[in-house]
Design goal:
Layout: H1 2-22, H2 32-37, H3 45-48, E1 54-60, E2 63-69, E3 74-79, E4 83-90, E5 95-100, E6 107-115, E7 122-126, E8 132-138
Antiparallel strand pairs: 1-2, 1-8, 2-3, 3-4, 4-5, 5-6, 6-7, 7-8
């Protein structure tokens, strides 16, 4: 009987932990047009400057990362495929851009950023194709 209780308790805890983890990052609209249609607010270049430089936790199409944007324009990505690169804010286009080293050379990607609606998370959309790229929030100091 104790084993049965322990089994159900372990199952209940794993379900609650999994659902809590899933709630860590909200689901994003699939593309920039849908984000606009839902009335999400796009951040301006000036608003982006309040987040960068700084550290953010990111979940994207390739996994989860801790991204550290340094004041000297460098970026360190830890998590899925640790990498280093460069970043900048394009205030005229209301985007932030980053470039990571690749075999073919660095490739810059620029992102339009929308508030998720919870005043914590933000959604990134690649301006080249308008599709969702990441959801992120400020990293908490350790």
């Amino acid at each position: 009987m104790k084993r049965l209780f322990a089994f159900f308790l372990a199952g209940a805890l794993s379900v609650s932990l999994a659902s809590g983890y899933a709630q860590g990052f909200p689901e994003a609209p699939p593309n920039l047009k849908e984000a606009q249609a839902r009335g999400l607010q796009r951040l301006s270049g000036e608003e982006l400057k309040t987040f960068f430089p700084g550290a953010i936790l990111s979940r994207g199409t390739t996994g989860k990362h801790l991204m550290t944007y340094n004041a000297d324009g460098t970026i360190d990505r830890k998590g899925f495929k640790d990498k280093a690169g460069r970043w900048r804010i394009d205030a005229a286009e209301d985007t932030y851009c980053n470039a990571f080293a690749r075999k073919q050379g660095p490739e810059e990607a620029c992102f339009a950023v929308f508030r998720a609606g919870d005043d914590v998370h933000h959604f990134d959309y690649d301006v080249r194709d308008g599709f969702y790229a990441h959801v992120w929030r400020r990293a908490q100091p350790e």
